[in-house]
Amino acid sequence: MLSDAIQQYVEHHRALGYKYRTQSGLLRNFAVYAEAQGDEVVRTQRALDWARQAPSPQQRRNRLLTLRRFAQAMQAEDARYQVPPSDAFGRVAFTRRISIPPRRLSHCCRQRHA
Fold this sequence. Notes:
Layout: H1 2-15, H2 21-36, H3 44-52, H4 57-75, H5 102-113
């Protein structure tokens, strides 16, 4: 059963020291959705349909990538698991936010120009 596999996967991550709260909620939500459709393993189309239900593009991507990691781990033991593509909703350019207090920023600039 899919929900049993998810439970074991979550317990494994928690045993490694991860809190895994958000991910476990997403995976359990998917299990309810997929099992209601009669699925016993992750199917790509079902994963995409479920991920599309999220209200924002970021949440869709988070759902898909969380489920993808789970499917990759399960596929190593059971070839019936399908791994959804990571770029199904397009690629996202990652921009790192850097927060430097103004005082330190001016100090850094002075050192560079000296």
